[in-house]
Design brief:
mainly alpha, Arc Repressor Mutant, subunit A, Tetracycline Repressor, domain 2, 2 domains, about 70% helix
Length: about 200
């Protein structure tokens, strides 16, 4: 029997869905409460404000989702390039990502420039992701798959930014196929460093 969600967990899950799809500014506390079927007093028992609720959602839900959506690690028996391609194929099959884009990127665009606290928590996750890709590329250099002229830090940033940019197209223009066609150029750029 599945564990029943606590009020706090319900609020965080609904907040993730609403903020991801509609953005921070367009998401109201009343909508979150209505969808979670939670009275206002219960929310304020857990969170003092909408901002506090969304910050908690970022750290407890969004961080985990980002690790799941963008799993950059070398897979057993595969090269680094094959592992990266597999990650991009998984991304292309994720209907939420294709339809709405990267939730971290969307929040960064909306909030980083206007709120220091949001900028800190969102930048932290973006930095961790970049470091993860950088480490994976370094593994490729260490095992001789890539030559040592590959600037792992710069290429990791390019790979993430290009992927997020492709995902940021409007839902009308964003398809699984277009994501794979456009992301092909990331891998063509990586080919330059292949031994």
């Amino acid at each position: 029997m599945p564990k029943k969600q606590t009020t706090r967990e319900k609020l965080l899950d609904i907040t993730f869905q609403e903020v991801y799809i509609h953005g921070y500014a367009a998401t109201s506390v009343d909508t979150i409460l209505k969808k979670a079927k939670v009275p206002k007093g219960s929310m304020y028992h857990h969170f003092k404000s909408k901002k506090e609720l969304v910050l908690a959602m970022v750290e407890e839900i969004l961080y985990v989702k980002m690790d799941s959506f963008f799993k950059f690690e070398k897979e057993e028996g595969k090269s680094v390039q094959e592992s990266l391609r597999h990650t991009f194929v998984r991304i292309s099959k994720n209907k939420l990502l294709i339809t709405y884009g990267c939730p971290l990127y969307r929040l960064m665009v909306e909030l980083s420039a206007v709120d220091k606290e949001f900028d800190e928590v969102l930048t932290l996750k973006a930095t961790q992701m970049k470091e993860g890709v950088q480490s994976l590329l370094q593994v490729g250099i260490d095992i001789g798959e890539f030559n040592d002229t590959l600037d792992t830090e710069a290429f990791a940033g390019f790979m993430l930014n290009a992927g997020w940019g492709i995902l940021s197209l409007s839902p009308t223009l964003s398809t699984s196929k277009s994501f794979m066609v456009q992301s092909r150029y990331i891998f063509e750029a990586l080919e330059r460093y292949t031994n």
